[in-house]
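Action item from last week, closing it out:
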Amino acid sequence: MTKESIGARVPKTYGQKTLILSNKLGLNSKELAIKKELNFIVIPLARQPTQNEWEEMQIQVPDMQLATASFEEKRPRKKTLAEILSNELPKTLLDKLPRALDSIGDIAIVEIPKELQSYKSLIGNTILKTQKNVKTVLSKSGAIDGTYRLRQFEIIAGEHKTTTFHKEYGCQFFADIAKAYFSPRLSHEHERVASLVKKGETVVDLFAGIGPFSVLIAKNHIDATVYAIDINPDAIEFLKRNTRLNRVENRVFPILGDARQIVDRKLVGVADRVIMNLPKKAAEFVDVACKTIKPSGGIVHYYGFIRLPDSMESTKKKLAEMVANSGRTIDKFLTAKTVRETAPFEWQVVFDAKIL
């Protein structure tokens, strides 16, 4: 919806300064959005400035003009869960409500603290009503654990299921989050790594899961070859389904088994690039990655966790030592960055290392 209103038209370079000034004078419209032109913006005003206000604004922004324009109406801000439930919960518990949720397809996953366990159905049904694409709400019932990296969930609202189809960067993924690990919080990493793959590369995904790295790489690079390994039989079955779903079954080759054994049997020295997304145990497989990389060298994407007092620098040194102990050398670190905070004073990190 658009609406005719008066606005302040200024060069883009003066935009921020004008916004601060007009807000200070109480002139900014809260209902209308800023209009962008080629080299100008038009800031919608709630009312006509007084003569004194206009003179003050023109002193600071001499190129400003008043203009009538059509502005888009702002979408109403979505209420937070605390605002929606403000009359349903004791005031002392409102700040305990989850501030974020993970969305995997049409499933929403939340973490409900023990103080709110008796209200979990209310919370789940509120999420179901306010998130139009959500059909099931799950509550985390434990930490990610075990060889298969699985977590226990409780269905607190909606359809009784843990399966869904998740879309990410033009790919579709079938997932059963009770049977195979998948995190939507790594979507930017999936896309980032896929964008780095070069023409004709051979990639080995040591802990592929349902295939978010492998499938996206193959989808974006028709000349790539991806060997996708996982020890979880369910994950491999879902991965096979996802290769067919995205029509990359001729480029992604799912392999069931322990990564160390698989590499020893058939993948020594084949890879231009190795993905190591197993943060808790990746250090145990550095020698495997080094063995997988071609003798001429390649890139390793190493994911891990750091906790204070550890630092990025100390973790880089440890990784370099592990690579050296495996008979290879890190030529240089191409990337070293945090991916996300996973707990207080703990972060998931990634290092892209060029191995010789």
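Closing note: The longest strand covers residues 330-343.
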